[in-house]
C-alpha cells in the first residue's frame, strides 16, 4: 500500500553526521531538519496562515487533546478536516493527546484500556485510548499522526518506566490496527523508556518491528538537566531507522534544536516562540531580549538587526515595548511572528550548513554569538 | 498661511442633502463621508496597518489621553511622530484627551486653567489644559487635532452645560493660540452645549469666529435616547460651515452613521467594530450576530455572505466561534477586520448613493435588510 509519508535522505554532514532530507507528505514536501510551530487549538496563537507562510512555517502541529475537547473532532470532520477548518494547506501533524492527558487532564486513571480523565475545561469525564485517539486523529485528518503513548514524569522509577514503556508499545500496536487512513495519514511510533538506556533500546526495537513510516522520541525535555537530555538523545537517535523521519517532540530552544539535529533528528516542535512572545520576549541573533523591560522603552532599533521579518522591517523595540506594556494584541503578534521566523531562519541556516559539511563550526559560532544558552 | 486641512465639496444628495466630499490632508485625501476606526493606544486593536488598508481604512484615530500617559508624547516625538511610531502612512486624527479625562481619569478637578486628574494606569496625578493638550497633539503629529473640551455628562443641567460650553469656547481660543504646527496639522473646534439648542447655537457661533479648518459635534451619543440624538444632530449640523469638514465624534452604529451623513456630517469615529469583535459579535448585512453563541457552533457559512473581506473569504462562522470560545487572538482579529470592513463598505455605498441622489431610498432598504437597529 502507498504510504502517506516517505523520507528522502539528501546528505549527511561530514562534520557532525546531521541529516539533510525531505519528508514527502500529501500536502507537500518538508525540507528537513525542520522546526514546526504549534497550533494547539487549530491556530498558531495570534497568527494567520498567511503570516505563518511568510515566516516559512513548512508544517504546523495541532493538539488532539485540545481539539477532542473543543470543538470536537466530529465537528472538524464535518468542516472538511483540520486543513480546511483552519485554512492551512500545508502539512499538519497532530500529537495523540497522550502528553496532554498527563500534563493537563485531572484525576486521570490509567489502565491497560486507556486513560480516563477530567477535562481541564469543564471537569467532565473523558476517555482516551489508542483506538479513540486514532479515531480523533483520523477525523482531524493531519498528514502525520502520532500513536497514543504515556509520557512518564521526570524522574520516574525504573520499574514504573518499564511498565509504562511496555504498555506504550502495546498501545502503539493497537493504534496501528485502529488507523483507518493509511494512504493519507502517516502514523508515527513514539519511543519511550524514560532515562534508562536499555528501556529506550527495547522500546525502539519493538516499535521498529511494527514498521511505522516515522518515529519520534517522547518523554525527554521534560525538566531533566541538559546533560541528561544530550545523553538520551545520543543513545536513542541511532536506534531509529535511517530511512524514515526522526522526530524529537517538544523541543524548541535554539541550542536544543541544534543539538538534536547533530544527533540525527529531522523534526522538532515547541510552543516556545509563541509562548515567550506572549510574555514579551524576543529571540534574537544575540540572545533573548525581554522587550517588555524598561531598558527597551526608548530603543528605536529593530528587535534583531539581522532579521528580515515583517516586525523587524517595520517596527522598533520601543513600539513593541509600548504595545506589550499596553496589553495590545499587535505586540504579541509581532513578537510571535519574529520568534517563529528566528527559529525557521535558524533551521534554514542549519540545512545549508549540513550541505556544506560545516554544522559543527556553525554550532560553535552560533553559541558564541547567541551569548548564553538556557 | 497654507492650511493643513481643506475640504472640497463634490456633490450634495438631492434626496437627503448629504454631502459627498474630499478632505485634503498632509498624508493624502480622504473620501467623505468616512468612518474612522479608533487606534486608542497607537494601534487599532488586534490589527496591523496593512490589514487596515485592506479593509479600506482611510484615516484612523488615536487617543491623546492614552498616549500622553503611555508611552508619553515626548517618546512618540523622539520616534519621529505617531505615523512613524506605528507604521501608518495615511492620515491620523487625535482627539484632545478631553473626553477621556472625564470618562477614565479619576478624582478630576476642573478649573479655568484645565483639568487635574489621576491616571487610570497608576493613580499618579496628571494635568491637562488647552496648552498641554495641544503640546501633546503637536508632538504626536496627527494630521487633524482636536481642541481640548469638556464633554458634559448626560443629563446635565442647563446652568452647568452653559458654564461648561463657555469654558470650552475659551479653551478653544487658548488651543488655537498654543497650536505650533498649523501648516501640517489642522486644529478642529468642538461644538458643545449638551442638549440645549440655544447653547449649541452659541457654541457654534463663537467657535466659527475662531475660524478653525474643521468643526466637530461633541457631547452627543453619550447615552441619550435616539430621538434626542437625531434632534441635536438636526439643529446643530446646519450651524457648521459648509466649506469645512464636519465631524460627529464617537458614532459608529450603522444607523447612527447613516443618520449623521443625512444630517450633513462628513466624518465619524467609533471603537464599536473592534470592541464588539472582542465580545464575539459580527456586524452583517442582515444585522448583528453574536458568533460566540452556540447557534453558530456548526455553522459552516461565512460571517456575511455579502462581504468580501479576508475573514469572510477564508473562514466559517464555526471556526470563528471556536476561536472566540477558545480565547484565541485570531478570532478577535477576524471579527475586528470584518467589522471595520462592514462599516467602510457601508460608507463606500453611502458615498455612491449620495452621488446618485439616492441616499434616502438606500437608508430605507438598509434598515429593512439589517433587520433591527439599536
What does this structure look like?
The structure is a homodimer of 374-residue chains. Chain A has 374 residues and is α/β, with parallel strands linked by helices. Chain A has helices spanning 49-54, 64-69, 73-78, 82-86, 98-103, 130-140, 158-178, 197-209, 226-236, 254-263, 272-278, 310-314, 317-325, 329-355, 359-370, and strands spanning 6-12, 19-25, 28-32, 34-37, 60-62, 92-94, 106-110, 115-118, 125-128, 144-146, 186-191, 215-217, 246-248, 267-270, 281-284, 287-290. In chain A, the strands form four sheets. In chain A, strands 4-14-13-12-11-10-6-5 form an eight-stranded parallel beta sheet. The N and C termini of chain A lie far apart (45 Å). The mean pLDDT of chain A is 96.
Oligomer: homodimer
The profile of the biggest β sheet of chain A is: 8 strands, parallel
Radius of gyration of chain A: 20 Å
Question: Would you report the number of β strands of chain A?
Answer: 16
How far apart lie the N and C ends of chain A?
45 Å
Q: What integer is the average pLDDT of chain A?
A: 96
Largest interface (CB < 8 Å):
A-B, 34 and 34 residues
Strand content of chain A: 15-25%
Question: What overall form of chain A do the CA principal axes indicate?
Answer: globular
Number of H/I helices of chain A: 15
Q: Which stretches of chain A are poorly predicted, pLDDT < 50 over at least 5 residues?
A: none
Amino acid at each position: 500500500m502507498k504510504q502517506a509519508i516517505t523520507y528522502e535522505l539528501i546528505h549527511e554532514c561530514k562534520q557532525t553526521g546531521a541529516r539533510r532530507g525531505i519528508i514527502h507528505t500529501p500536502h507537500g514536501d518538508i525540507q528537513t531538519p525542520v522546526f514546526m510551530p504549534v497550533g494547539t487549538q487549530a491556530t498558531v496563537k495570534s497568527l494567520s496562515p498567511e503570516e505563518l507562510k511568510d515566516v516559512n512555517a513548512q508544517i504546523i502541529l495541532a493538539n488532539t487533546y485540545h481539539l477532542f475537547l473543543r470543538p470536537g473532532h466530529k465537528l472538524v470532520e464535518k468542516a472538511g478536516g483540520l486543513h480546511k477548518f483552519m485554512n492551512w494547506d500545508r502539512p499538519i501533524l497532530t500529537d495523540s493527546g497522550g502528553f496532554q492527558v498527563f500534563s493537563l487532564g485531572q484525576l486521570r486513571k490509567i489502565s491497560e484500556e486507556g486513560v480516563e480523565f477530567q477535562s481541564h475545561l469543564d471537569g467532565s469525564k473523558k476517555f482516551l485510548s489508542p483506538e479513540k485517539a486514532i479515531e480523533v486523529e483520523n477525523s482531524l485528518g493531519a498528514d502525520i499522526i502520532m500513536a497514543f503513548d504515556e509520557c512518564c514524569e521526570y524522574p520516574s522509577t525504573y520499574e514504573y518506566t518499564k511498565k509504562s514503556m511496555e504498555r506504550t508499545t502495546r498501545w502503539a500496536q493497537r493504534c496501528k490496527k485502529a488507523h483507518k487512513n493509511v494512504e493519507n495519514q502517516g502514523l508515527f511510533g513514539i519511543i519511550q523508556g524514560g532515562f534508562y538506556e536499555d528501556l529506550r533500546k527495547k522500546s525502539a526495537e519493538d516499535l521498529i518491528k511494527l514498521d511505522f513510516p516515522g518515529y519520534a522520541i517522547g518523554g525527554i525535555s521534560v525538566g531533566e538537566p541538559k546533560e541528561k537530555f544530550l545523553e538520551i538523545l545520543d543513545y536513542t537517535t541511532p536506534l531509529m531507522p535511517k530511512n524514515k523521519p526522526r522526530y524529537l517532540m517538544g523541543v524548541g530552544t535554539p541550542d536544543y534544536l541544534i543539538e538534536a539535529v547533530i544527533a540525527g533528528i529531522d523534526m522538532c516542535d515547541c510552543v516556545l516562540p509563541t509562548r515567550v512572545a506572549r510574555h514579551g520576549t524576543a529571540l534574537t541573533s544575540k540572545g533573548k531580549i525581554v522587550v517588555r523591560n524598561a531598558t527597551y522603552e526608548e530603543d528605536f532599533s529593530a528587535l534583531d538587526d539581522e532579521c528580515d521579518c515583517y516586525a523587524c522591517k517595520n517596527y522598533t523595540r520601543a513600539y513593541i515595548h509600548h504595545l506589550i506594556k499596553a496589553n495590545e494584541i499587535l505586540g504579541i503578534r509581532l513578537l510571535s511572528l519574529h520568534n517563529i521566523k528566528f527559529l525557521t531562519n535558524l533551521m534554514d541556516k542549519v540545512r545549508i550548513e549540513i550541505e556544506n559539511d560545516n554544522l559543527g563550526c556553525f554550532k560553535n559560532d552560533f553559541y558564541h554569538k547567541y551569548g548564553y544558552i538556557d
